[in-house]
């Protein structure tokens, strides 16, 4: 009887202690949510030195790196290409690193080690890697490395700046994930400082284009509107130069003339939604294509359940709602024929009717 009683007390003691530990752990987590933060690296350029800061379980780890560890000078990229055999495009990843990796792996664009597996072909990311999700920085470093790997094989990765890239670079932080507000607090600096002109990734971003043309297709985040063309001759290199130069101009400076409405307004390259919302005629689309000397335009920005085609395959929309973290697709162009590549790695034709959201 006594043996049973003492065994019962011992079991209560063990249970109480385990529960107490769980409660203590929970209380600690609530009291110090920074313990859950893992982020980085962020590589800052200070004089001739690189300083890397990484956060591991709320602790800041700082390393001083040799000046040649990373490039710190990035030339503007070429933006017009011909004779490319295969092209794959996606957009609006919005921090959904894991889903993007799965989609690229299932369709053999990258291998199991996240390395380039697409030979001399081209991958186009049509804007909006930033905001919403919690793995933006992981995506940026992944694209940074993949770009270098692709070039060694004669291929290319094109990262176009979308409206959310320009928003962050101009310190519009309405859509950043709460994790990054906590990172800012831990590092005691504003989020925009992680990608300014004194960081490796910040300088790399400033070399990126807003438009590219590959074969007979122009890629741009929002779209090319009649209104935009009425203010500009369509010279891709010149437009990209103008957009790059605008990154480090304040919003007030941009708004002091009509520049902001042309390049950042609702009819601009990064914000336009007219292909989906304005019920344009085929004639209007054909006129835009004639002015830009192209047969197709590929855009992101407007979310759909899959990659879509509009206006008899003159326009392709590649925002397949990856931002929700559940599903996504790629556009695959081969010899002027276009297909959808699914998350299961299957090639499919386009549906006749498509609806934007």
Question: How are the SSEs ordered, and which strands pair?
Answer:
Layout: H1 2-31, E1 39-46, E2 49-56, E3 59-65, E4 80-81, E5 86-90, H2 97-106, E6 122-125, H3 136-152, E7 156-159, H4 163-169, H5 178-187, H6 200-205, E8 211-214, E9 217-220, H7 226-231, H8 236-246, H9 251-254, H10 259-264, H11 274-277, H12 282-291, E10 296-299, E11 308-310, E12 315-317, E13 330-334, E14 337-341, E15 347-348
Parallel strand pairs: 4-8, 5-6, 6-7, 9-10, 10-12
Antiparallel strand pairs: 1-2, 2-3, 5-13, 8-9, 11-12, 13-14, 14-15
Quick tags:
357 residues; alpha/beta; Purple Acid Phosphatase, chain A, domain 2; 2 domains; six-stranded mixed β-sheet; 12 helices; 34% helix; disordered N terminus
What is the alpha-carbon Rg in Å?
24 Å
Mean pLDDT: 91
Q: Largest sheet, order of strands side by side?
A: 4-8-9-10-12-11
Q: What's the N-to-C terminus distance?
A: 71 Å
Number of domains as seen in the coordinates: 2
Question: How many β-strand runs?
Answer: 15
Tell me what portion of residues adopts beta-strand conformation. Answer: 15-25%
| Second-tier CATH architecture of the largest domain | 4-Layer Sandwich
Structural class: alpha/beta
At the fourth level of CATH, the homologous superfamily of the largest domain is Metallo-dependent phosphatases
Sheet with the most strands? 6 strands, mixed
Helix content bin: 25-40%
**Poorly predicted tracts of residues:** 1-29
* H/E topology pattern: HEEEEEHEHEHHHEEHHHHHHEEEEEE
Q: Multimeric state of these chains?
A: single chain
């Amino acid at each position: 009887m006594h043996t049973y009683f003492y065994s019962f007390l011992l079991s209560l003691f063990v249970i109480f202690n385990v529960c107490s530990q769980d409660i203590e752990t929970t209380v600690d987590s609530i009291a110090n949510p920074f313990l859950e933060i893992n982020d980085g690296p962020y590589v800052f350029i200070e004089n001739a030195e690189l300083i890397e800061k990484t956060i591991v379980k709320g602790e800041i780890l700082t390393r001083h790196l040799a000046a040649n560890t990373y490039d710190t000078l990035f030339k503007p990229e070429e933006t017009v290409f011909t004779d490319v055999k295969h092209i794959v495009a996606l957009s609006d990843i919005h921090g959904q690193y894991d889903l993007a990796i799965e989609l690229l792996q299932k369709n053999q664009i990258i291998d199991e080690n996240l390395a380039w597996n697409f030979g001399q072909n081209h991958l186009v990311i049509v804007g909006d890697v930033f905001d919403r999700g919690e793995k933006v920085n992981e995506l940026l470093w992944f694209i940074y490395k993949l770009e270098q790997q692709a070039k060694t094989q004669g291929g290319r990765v094109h990262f176009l700046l979308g409206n959310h890239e320009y928003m962050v670079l101009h310190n519009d932080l309405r859509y950043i994930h709460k994790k990054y507000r906590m990172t800012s607090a831990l590092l005691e600096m504003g989020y925009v400082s992680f990608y300014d002109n004194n960081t490796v990734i910040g300088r790399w971003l400033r070399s990126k284009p807003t438009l590219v043309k590959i074969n007979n297709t122009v890629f741009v985040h929002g779209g090319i509107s009649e209104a935009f063309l009425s203010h500009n001759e369509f010279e891709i290199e010149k437009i990209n130069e103008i957009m790059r130069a605008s990154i480090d101009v304040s919003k007030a400076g941009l708004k002091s003339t009509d520049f902001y409405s042309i390049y950042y307004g609702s009819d601009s390259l990064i914000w336009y939604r007219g292909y989906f919302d304005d019920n344009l005629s085929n004639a209007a689309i054909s006129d835009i294509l004639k002015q830009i000397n192209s047969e197709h335009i590929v855009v992101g920005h407007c979310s759909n359940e899959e990659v879509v085609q509009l206006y008899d395959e003159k326009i392709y929309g590649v925002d397949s709602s990856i931002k929700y973290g559940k599903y996504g697709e790629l556009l695959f162009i081969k010899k002027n024929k276009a297909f959808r590549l699914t998350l299961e790695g299957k090639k499919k034709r386009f549906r006749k009717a498509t609806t934007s959201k």
